[in-house]
Specification:
Layout (H helix, E strand, L loop, with lengths): L1 H16 L12 H15 L13 E7 L7 E12 L2 E10 L5 E12 L2 E12 L2 E8 L4 E13 L2 E8 L3 E3 L1
Antiparallel strand pairs: 1-2, 2-3, 3-6, 4-5, 4-7, 7-8, 7-9
């Protein structure tokens, strides 16, 4: 009888030791982790301050004509944060004398995915150019202003360009 009990016990022990139980496990993929980090880095590219940005709420650039010019004196651009969704842009093309045509092209650039691209632009030409404007923009990124300044008189056209640092609008 003891052999029968020992045999039954042994059979139960063997069946318990070889039984399987379902286990829930999460699969890990190293490529998913790399892709998630790239998405996080792309989202934060616009928040990173580079040498193209400033922590100030305004930026200004003035460029004098490098040639010995008779017409164009200088160009100036300024961008200023007014609120979390509003900026002011000021642009000026200044001449030494009255010119037949004066040009001021304003390019508002927005930083997206780590680089700047034209968001809006305006082109003006007249005999005297100073422009001020207020622009509503989406918040959460950097904006800067690029200017093209030129003057023509007597068949001669002289030009220069300006570029402000980026300011954070948030």
């Amino acid at each position: 009888m003891w052999k029968k009990i020992l045999g039954i016990g042994l059979a139960i022990a063997v069946s318990l030791s070889t039984s399987t139980a379902p286990v829930l496990a999460e699969t890990l993929n190293i490529m998913d982790d790399v892709a998630n980090r790239e998405v996080i880095n792309d989202e934060n590219d616009d928040d990173e301050i580079t040498d193209e940005e400033t922590t100030e709420e305004w930026s200004e650039d003035t460029s004098y004509n490098m040639m010995r010019s008779n017409n164009l004196s200088y160009g100036n651009m300024k961008i200023q944060k007014l609120s979390s969704r509003k900026i002011a842009i000021n642009g000026m093309t200044q001449c030494h004398r009255k010119c037949a045509k004066v040009y001021l092209y304003i390019y508002l650039e927005r930083k997206v995915n780590g680089s700047y691209g034209t968001y809006k632009y305006w082109k003006f030409d007249a005999s005297n150019l100073t422009k001020e404007m207020t622009v509503i923009v989406p918040s959460g990124t950097y904006y800067r202003v690029r200017g093209y300044h030129a003057a023509s008189n007597g068949g001669v056209k002289e030009s220069t360009s300006t570029l402000t640092s980026g300011i954070k609008v948030s």
